[in-house]
Amino acid sequence: MTGRLYVVGTGPGSPEQTTPEALAAIAASHVFFGYGPYLDRLVLRDDQRRVASDNREELARAKDALMTAASGEQVCVVSGGDPGVFAMAAAICEAIEAGPPAWRALEVTMVPGVTAMLAVSARAGAPLGHDFCAISLSDNLKPWTVIEERLRAVAGAGLVIALYNPISKARPWQLGTAFAILREVLPWTTPVIFGRAAGRPDENIRVVSLADADPATADMATCVIIGSPETRVIERPGLAPLVYSPRSIGAIK
Ligand SMILES: C[S@@+](CC[C@H](N)C(=O)[O-])C[C@H]1O[C@@H](n2cnc3c(N)ncnc32)[C@H](O)[C@@H]1O
Q1: pTM for this entry
Q2: How far, in Å, from the CA of 82 to the mean position of ligand 1?
Q3: Residue numbers of the domain that contains 159
């Protein structure tokens, strides 16, 4: 049998936010590679086998998955959210580029998913309604100096910023430093959304000003969205506020 590799994004955590295309790829696969907690979200049949690995072993996992697909298996590599956003799709491409020629002949299908910033944005209103970017605050794969330069550049350019991987036990100070840099560039009244576990039972969405943004309220399950100077908050009686970025600059006075 000819092997095949799917790289699937299962969405932010809620079964309703996994696409039918992702479910079809999962149903068609026999061997699943991924970080354990992501594999735990799948309901697998008896003929489907899982190979869990640590979330720092992405390249090794990609190579194992490619070797297994090259041996003729139907393989699925699983990411949370979208596999192309700070996840396995790029690791698979890196492994193919550096790997044996046979891996280039494999059929590889990337299956998109709802990424965290879209899930959080939908809960808060429309903070990504105008130009935006996504930055991973993890300095495991790039130097912190690059992250600082990028934060200053995009905040100065007026982009809304979605921060992934904001904080962890091994990276406790980076989010606080990021807020300090952003306070040098942006008005302190800029809305900041802490979107935790969007789409999951323990979801928590909070909106504060940049002045009040406290890094201690974020964890690894949080995507932090920092507005642009155009981003607005509509307060509503008895309801959560709506945060949005208008479609045109200077449209609302
Ligand atoms: C390694 S990145 C993976 C991103 C994933 N591929 C995606 O598209 O959402 C992990 C980071 O995504 C964010 N994240 C993932 N799931 C989330 C959720 N349900 N709610 C909020 N943020 C989430 C957090 O910032 C977390 O630290």
Answers
A1: 0.96
A2: 9
A3: 117-244
